[in-house]
Write a structure and sequence with these properties.
This protein is α/β, with parallel strands linked by helices. The protein contains 14 helices and ten strands.
């Protein structure tokens, strides 16, 4: 309840609270061609389990490893496969190529585009503001400002990030992925009037919600758990959210291992039957086969937790 009440008091437009699933880009075979059929199935799954929206062509979507034609094909497939609102990632840190990416996304997604996700490209707030202003003037797009130094190579102080958000009325959310995320989210949520989302596979989700996050914008092979956690938080608070997420924490932590997180998550998605192949493109590292046994253990635990949750819901519904 506390989260929904907080969101109702906002004075400026803000991205809806909940879980925005970050969509992987499936590849197939030794050539690693984009697998649009698997992509469509994955997107349909997100909609069927109640995701608030989808984030496409982000870091986890390996957008930087796609050609412009492939990015268009991916976005077209997503648009055709779901009615959910979309946030589309922008890979470029410089304004001119970023503008071209946004225009290309608008040409495909049109009214389905809730916002574009732009990374902070400088530690100096005035530089980031100028960058975002240039994008917005040229495209009119709303912006999710992403602070993810591991991907961008840019570390921006939280106070500078606050200055950027408050100066740019078209910024509708912040994706805070600079550890410690809960510290940054607490500062941001107290100082800005837009939704703040955590990422990083949901690893810090409970603490992020306590700090004022509106939900999660991330990828995880069991996104059902993230959705159940955020809904429980909205309806009943921390204890309910903790109960929903706790059974999945071993898998969440397993997936977030440095340098191989992408390959692990895609292999988990393949094991679940949500994509056909789990290949990643360079420079991402492949799946470490010596982790397969551990992965199997965590996936079995997660599958059991999901089945228990489904049974509980069916029993509850049947009692009315």
């Amino acid at each position: 309840m506390q989260l929904s009440v907080a969101r109702e008091s906002l004075n400026r437009e803000s991205l809806p609270a909940g879980v925005w699933g970050v969509v992987a880009t499936p590849f197939q075979g030794s050539t690693l061609d984009v697998d649009l059929d698997s992509l469509a199935e994955l997107v349909e799954h997100y909609e069927s389990i109640g995701a608030t929206g989808l984030t496409v062509l982000g870091v986890f979507g390996e957008a930087a490893a796609l050609t412009a034609d492939e990015r268009r094909d991916v976005l077209e497939t997503v648009v055709e496969s779901t009615s959910l609102p979309l946030v589309v990632g922008v890979t470029a840190l410089a304004s001119r190529p970023a503008i071209q990416e946004v225009l290309a996304a608008q040409a495909v997604a049109d009214s389905r585009l809730a916002a574009v996700m732009v990374q902070s490209n400088s530690a100096k707030p005035e530089t980031v503001i100028a960058h975002l202003d240039a994008i917005h003037r040229a495209t009119g797009a709303k912006v999710v400002l992403q602070d993810y130094p591991l991907a961008s190579g840019v570390s921006i102080p939280t106070k500078a990030l606050i200055s950027v958000v408050n100066a740019c009325e078209y910024v509708v959310a912040v994706k805070a992925e600079a550890p410690p995320t809960s510290v940054a989210i607490a500062e941001l949520s107290a100082a800005v009037e837009v939704s703040i989302f955590g990422g990083l596979g949901g690893q810090g989700l409970l603490d992020e919600l306590l700090a004022g996050a509106a939900g999660a914008m991330t990828g995880f092979s069991y996104p059902e758990a993230l959705i159940a956690c955020v809904r429980a938080w909205q309806e009943d608070g921390y204890e309910a959210a903790r109960r929903e997420l706790l059974p999945y924490m071993p898998l969440i932590n397993f997936e977030q291992q440095a340098r191989v997180a992408l390959a692990i998550r895609k292999e988990c998605l393949r094991e679940r039957g949500l994509v056909k192949d789990s290949g990643v493109r360079a420079p991402a590292a492949g799946f470490p086969e010596n982790l397969r046994s551990s992965m199997g253990t965590h996936l079995r635990e997660a599958a059991a937790a999901l089945e228990t949750a489904k049974t509980t819901v069916q029993t509850t519904v049947g009692s009315f």
